[in-house]
Amino acid sequence: MIKFPNLSRLHRNEGLRALVLSFMLTACFSQKDVIGSKVALKVNGTEITTQAFADRLAQKLKGLDALQVKDDTYLENAKKQTIEAFLVESLIKQYCDKISISVTPEELEAEVNKIRTKYPDDNAFKGALAEENMSFERWKTGIESTLLQRKLIAHLSKDLPEPTDKELKTYFDENKKNFERPARIQLRQIVVSTEDNAKRIHDEIVAGKDFAELAKKFSVAPEGENGGVTNWIEKGTLEVFDTAFKLNIGGRSKVVKSPYGYHIYEVLKKEPETKLNLEQAKASIRTALRERQEHQVFSTWLEAQLKSSTVMKNDALIKAIQISTRGN
Length: 328
Prior knowledge:
By secondary structure, the protein is an alpha+beta fold. It has 13 helices and 11 strands.
């Protein structure tokens, strides 16, 4: 059985991951313009050219060191994963077209905006795209594929039964360590993109200005609109919040830097490490069991689609794709 990757992972699920590049990756082969336009893989009526396949492969390998990239076994595995990803993507799109499932422009735009708000400002978002060597449109297409997969899974799973109490208890007994919750805190924070602005705002807070109003006015974080109040943050989530666990309720930080900008926060609530009982854990267990059922349904559907599909693969062309590294 072929193990197919999850499309949300292929597109980095929550969006973009900033990487530091020590080299560029390019797919190299003789007579590039001619060979690059040839079909490397075809799934029913959906084709991918050798050049497009090489671009996907290079994107998959970007960020790895030269030794990994040059390893033949690693490269072949990466090619296999690229093939499987295209198969999954194509079969999902073809099936959804047939049963009239689609992602609306409004749904896509909402998801794009949701991801963009995780960055302190638009420059940080564009910088992450640039470091990924990915155009906005290409990234947006990946997000659309992920949303389409979610819709298909919801369609395939609509008649699944709810887990029984016995199943919930069995899962709890077999996974008790998963229900040990770390210490957590809730903060009110302000995040800005420059240190100078952060220091100026910190001085205003010290002088007695209202923290919530300053958050609404200046914070670039999503919770700024809510006066800077965050969701619960578990210990170990992000280094910038480590100091918060040493503060008392009402305690405030100095200006602290993170990959997302410059933070100022105060502690609103604190909870110690806890161990959940079955009743407290039921909601998360239901989610875990539901996801397991959905994965099984999706895998069964995918295998059936593959068996009934026509897949043409040009092994010679795919084998000819080689990766070269070049320093910045």
